Amino acid sequence: AKARGRGALCFFAEEMTLAARERLELESRLRQALLQGQLLLYYQPQVDIASGRIIGAEALLRWPDPQEGMISPARFIPVAESSGLIGPLGEWVLRTACQQGQRWHEAGLPAVTIAVNVSPRQFQLTDLVACVHSALADSGFAADCLELEITESALADRFEETLQVLLRLRDLGLHLAVDDFGTGYSSLAHLKRFPIDVLKIDQGFVRDIPHSADDMAISAAIIAMGHSMGLRVLAEGVETPAQLAFLRERGCDSYQGYLRSRPLPAADFAALLGAQSTG
Ligand code: C2E
Ligand code: CA
Ligand code: CA
Ligand code: CA
Predict the structure, then answer these.
(1) What is the pTM of this model?
(2) How many CB atoms lie within 10 A of CB 162?
(3) Distance between CA atoms of residues 53 and 254, nearest Å
(4) I want to staple 238 with a disulfide (CB 3.0 to 4.6 A). Which of 9, 198, 248, 255 is the partner?
(5) CA–centroid distance, residue 236 to ligand 3 (Å)
(6) Highest mean pLDDT pick, 68-72, 151-155, 220-224
(7) Can you say how many angstroms the Cα of residue 159 is from the centroid of all Cα atoms in its chain?
(8) Which of 152, 60, 128, 51 is CA-nearest to residue 100?
(9) Distance between CA 111 and CA 144 in Å, rounded?
(10) Does residue 110 sit in helix, strand or coil?
């Protein structure tokens, strides 16, 4: 039993080393990709449910890799977060999204909100307010067209510090959205003290509409609660007409999802927006 125990331990240690090595390698490749300008932002339309019009876009990171195709942000964001690379990476995302938004504005496209994901780690690693301020100032992008998405779990810890940062961000004139709402543990008492504009219903609650009575009840409750707090509510991951019909009936304001469009390269999103303004 003892020998087997040692064998298992050795095996375990080797696995750890392998995982750690892979992580380090991914991190250094990500750092290179950022430095060499290989990362991209895709844009997923956000649609007003009542009018069917595109009113915004969420900027989503894409990492094209010659060997692997696209590397998913779900894989590399955690690596960036644990290595601290999320600081410069997050700054690049903010600057790129603001520059892109300003270029669309200058090209005469209809004004839309651009939503940018902010990792909880960016609160700790960088002066987020200074970073956002300079991204806006350097690009000339209008602050009220920028929305920052903060996950519900990021709101749960360091309440007072987070609150102060959010208040200062709001003073810049931008909007704040709570991402993945319903998956964290933020209390309503806390939530109502944050200067929030939008709740994003997590796609996990949308996926099984209209088959899951629980998820329908939760989504409806989030919509009603958001509205009673004066917030707009956006549903994520809408893939079917039945999901959209349910959300419309419950008064949900807007949605994102494959039903309307996958995240698109910047030029494709601009084309979609341009087509909407003429027709
Ligand atoms: P998220 O912020 O919750 O983004 C929504 C994810 O759902 C995106 O995955 C999007 O492509 C996907 N999605 C959109 N519509 C549908 C749909 O109808 N069905 C399904 N099944 N999925 C849909 P993506 O682009 O792979 O991004 C994954 C996560 O990576 C994001 O989740 C976000 O947490 C993170 N992420 C992406 N870009 C950034 C970034 O610039 N900064 C930070 N900090 N995180 C990012
Ligand atoms: Ca998001
Ligand atoms: Ca989300
Ligand atoms: Ca998510």
Answers:
(1) 0.93
(2) 18
(3) 10
(4) 255
(5) 7
(6) 220-224
(7) 21
(8) 60
(9) 10
(10) coil
Q: Residue 209 corresponds to which tokens in the numbers above?
A: 């509409």
The residues, ordered by sequence, that sit 6+ positions from 74 with a Cβ below 8 Å of its Cβ are none
Percent of the chain residues topping a pLDDT of 70:
94
Pairing of strands 232-235, 254-255: parallel
Q: For residue 17, report the distance from its CA to the centre of ligand 2, in Å.
A: 32
Retrieve residue 40's tokens: 């991209």
Q: Which residue has the tokens 């949605």?
A: 255
| Residue 234, φ and ψ in degrees, nearest 5 | -115, 135
Ligand 1 atom nearest to CA at 90 = 42
Interface predicted TM-score (ipTM) of this complex, two decimals: 0.97
Nearest CA to ligand 1 atom 27: 73
Spacing, Cα 172 to ligand 3 middle (Å): 24
The closest residue, in CA terms, to atom 15 on ligand 1 is 257
Contact 95, 153 (CB under 8 A): no
Please answer whether residues 113 and 56 qualify as being in contact, where contact means their C-beta atoms are separated by less than 8 angstroms.
yes
Measured from the alpha carbon of residue 202, the closest ligand is 3
Q: Which two tokens stand for residue 22?
A: 């892979």
Output the six-digit token pair for 23: 């992580």
Mind listing the pLDDT tens digit for each residue in 36-63? 999 999 999 999 999 999 999 999 999 9
Q: What tokens were used for 195?
A: 């200067």
Among protein residues, the one whose CA lies closest to atom 28 of ligand 1: 74
Is residue 123 within 8 A of residue 154, CB to CB? The reply is: yes
Write out the two tokens for 11: 């095996």
Q: Which two tokens stand for residue 94?
A: 């903010």
Please report, as a single letter, which amino acid is at residue 63.
Answer: W
- The two tokens of residue 77 are 């964001």
